[in-house]
Amino acid sequence: MKKIQLPDKLGHFGQFGGKFVPEILVAALESLEKAYREAQRDTGFKQRLTELLRNYGGRPTPLYFASQLTEHCGGARIYLKREDLAHTGAHKINNTLGQGLLAQRMGKRRVVAETGAGQHGVATATVCAMLGMDCVVYMGEEDVRRQALNVFRMRLLGAEVRPVSSGSQTLKDAINEAIRDWVTNVDSTYYLLGSVVGPHPYPMMVRDFQLVIGRETRRQVIKATGRLPDYAIACVGGGSNAMGLFYPLAKDLEVKLIGVEAGGLGLHTKKHGASLTEGSIGVLHGSKSHILQDDAGQIRETHSISAGLDYPGVGPEHSYYKESGRASYVTVTDKEALEGFNLLSQKEGIIPALEPAHAVYYATRLAAELAKDQIIVVNLSGRGDKDMDIVVGAMGVQL
Amino acid sequence: MSRIDSFFKSLPQKGEKKRKALIPYLTVGYPSVAATLEVAPALVAGGCDMIELGIPFSDPLADGATIQRASHLALQQGVTPQVCLDVASKLRQMVDVPLIFMSYYNPILHYGLEDFCAASSQAGIDGMIVPDLPPEEGAVLEGLAARKHMDIIYLLAPTTTDERLRLIADRSRGFIYVVSLKGVTGARETLPPELEGFITRVRSVTAKPLCVGFGIASPEQAYRVASLADGVIIGSRILDIVENSDQPATAAEEFIRQVRKALSPYEPT
After folding, report:
1. DSSP state for residue B149 in the 8-state scheme
2. Which are the contacts of B58, defined by CB distance < 8 A and separation ≥ 6?
3. Which chain B residue has its CA at the smallest distance from A279's CA?
4. Which neighbouring-strand residues pair with B176?
C-alpha cells in the first residue's frame, strides 16, 4: 500500500469520514483530537495503557488453533484470536481503557456512552468504576429488553442506564441520545464512543486503541505458523473489532481481509444490517460511509439476531477499504450465525457471542473450500454468555 | 441578491430603530401537510419576516423532544424531501417572505445536492440551514446553492472558538444562525445568562445579520434577544402551539402577533 496516513487532517478516508456535526460539538471534537494526539506522544500515557491492558484487561489474548473445527471443515487451518478472553468478555475493553484514560487526562469527571448489545456499555461502566468517573449509558428500549443481564451488570458497576424510546429503540437511537447529552453537557462530559464510527477523530482513535488485536495476531500467527495468514476474518457492525484486526495487516497485501455483516433474515427481506453490502453512501452520526437508507434518505430500521451488528451505518474506514478493494465484505444470516454458534460450542468448547458467530460461520464455509495449507484467522471478538436468552429463544428450547 | 439579503438590506441602515427579523419554524407535514399550508400563511399574517420549513429526518440529533416527535410524526405521514419541495412551491404562491429549508444533510445528499438546489430554487426557496454541516464540509453545497441565488446559512454556537467564528461569519450567507445555548432545540424557561457576552463576541468579528435561535419560547424572551441581535428564531414553541390547539392557524398567528408586538419598541413605527 502507498505510504499515506489516513485519515487526513479533516478526518477523511478518501471520500468517507469527516465531521458532520452540529457546530456546538466542533470545538469539543477539536480539543478531543488535540488531547488524543498529545496523549499519543506521552510515553507515560502509553505505559499506563499498556500496563492496564496487560494486568487489568488480560492482554495479550491468545491465538488458538481450532484443530477440531479445522478437522470438521476438512480444509484450511482455522485460528481464533481470543478476544472473548479479555476482561468483560469482548474486545470492547481495549477501546474503553484507552478512552477512559484519555477522559481522565482531559479532566472530565462524567462519561456518556451508547450501547447496543451492552458489551460496550459494560466495558465503559467497568472502566468508569475503576477510574472513579460518573457513567451514563444510553441504550435502546428494545435492547434493554433483549440484553437484560448486561443492563444489570452495568448498574452493578455503578453506571446509570437510560433507556431510549425514540426511533427504532436500538443502537442508532442510543447514539443519537448520547450525542444530545454530550451537546448539552459538553464542558463536563466525555463521550466514549464504542466503535470506529462517528465524527473525526473517533474512527481514527477507536481504530488506534483496537489495533492491538491485529498487532498481536500478526506476531502470534507468524510465531505459530512461520508466516502470515491467507485470510483475516471478522464480523462488522460499526466495525471496531474488524478494523482492529485488519489495520495492522493492511500493508500485507497477501492477507485477504474479509468483513462479515449481519444478513439478518436474508438480504431480500430488507431485515438485516448489511450497510456495506446493501447500503449506499450517506451521512449518519457525523461521518460519511455506507448506510442503509430508504428512497428519501431516511435511515432504515435494521435487524440482526446479534444486537452488536444491528446498526444501519459502518465505520468510514471500512467504506474506504471496500471502495479501494483492500477488504471485501460478505453477509451471514441469523440462521447461519446460529449454526456457527453451535458448531464452535460443540467442536471447540468455546461459546462465542452471536456477533463473531457470523465470522465463525463464514470461516468454516471458506475453510472447507480451501487447501489444507491455507491459514484463516478469525477474530473471536466476544463470548456468548450475554446471548443465552436469545439463543434459547431462537432454538425454541424450554429451560 | 437573495430574498433574504434583500430583506436585511431594505431595513434602515442607520439610526436606532430597525425592524427585527422574526423567523418561526415549522416541521413540514406536522401534524399534516394541510396544516402546514394553513399555518405558514397565518404566521405571515401575524407578522413574521421569514419562515423556516423543516424537512423531517429519522435521526435529528440536534433536536429536542418536540421537534423529534414532530419529525417522527411527519415521516409517518409520508413526508419526504419531495413533499417538502411541493409544499414550498405551494407556499411560494401564497406568501412573499423568504422561505428557508432546515434539513439534516443526509436527505439532501441522497436527493443529490445539485438536483436538490435546482428543485429548491424552482420551488421558491431562498436559503438552507443544515445543522450537521459545518463549513469544512459545506463548500460543494455552498457553490451549488449560490448558483441558484440561495443562501447557505451556517450556525454558530457558544462553544465556537474565535478562529472558527471568523470562518463561519465569512462563509455564512443571508444571516448567521446563532445557537443561543449548549444543548438541543426546545422551549426553555429562561435565556442563558452568557448570551449577551456571546453575542458581543460574535458582533465584534462580523457585521452580518445575527439571528438567534434554540430555546426561545415567549414574547418576553424574544424581546430580550432582540435587544442584542438582528432577529429571533422560534421553533419548538410554534410546534407546541400547533399541536395543542383546535385551530392551529389562528393560535399560531396570534402568538406571532404577540411576539411582533413585543419586538415593536425596537422598531420604526
Report:
1. T
2. A167, A298, A299, B71, B75
3. B110
4. B210
**How far is CA B39 from its chain centroid?**
15
Nearest to A297 among B111, B159, B168 (CB): B111
Mean pLDDT of A199-225: 98
**DSSP secondary structure code for residue A293 in this structure:** B
Asked which of A134-148, B30-44, B252-266 is least confident by mean pLDDT, the reply is A134-148
- Pull the grid cell for residue A3: 505510504
Give me the mean pLDDT over the A146-167 stretch: 93
Residue of A356, A334, A364 lying closest to A61 (CA atoms): A356
Task: Please tell me the predicted confidence (pLDDT) of residue A1.
Answer: 46
Residue A238 confidence (pLDDT) above 70: yes
Mean per-residue pLDDT, A12-40: 97
Give the active site residue among A275, A289, A319, A381. Answer: A381
Q: Is the ipTM of this complex over 0.90?
A: yes
What the block records as the C-alpha cell of B14 is 442607520
| Alpha-carbon distance B265 to nearest alpha carbon in chain A (angstroms) | 32
Element (H, E) at B52: strand B51-54
pLDDT in tens, B149-197: 999 999 999 999 999 999 999 999 999 999 999 999 999 999 999 999 9
Q: CA-to-CA distance for B82 and B70, rounded, in angstroms?
A: 18
Q: What long-range pairs does B224-228 form, CB within 8 A, spacing at least 24? A: B224/B191, B225/B180, B225/B191, B225/B195, B226/B20, B226/B263, B226/B266, B227/B266, B228/B195, B228/B196, B228/B199, B228/B200
The DSSP symbol for B154 reads P
Mean local confidence (pLDDT), A71-75: 98
**C-alpha A126 chain-centroid distance:** 17
Q: Domains in chain B, ordered, with CATH? A: 20-259 (3.20.20.70)
Q: How far is A161 from chain B (nearest CA, A)?
A: 19
pLDDT at A149 (0 to 100): 86
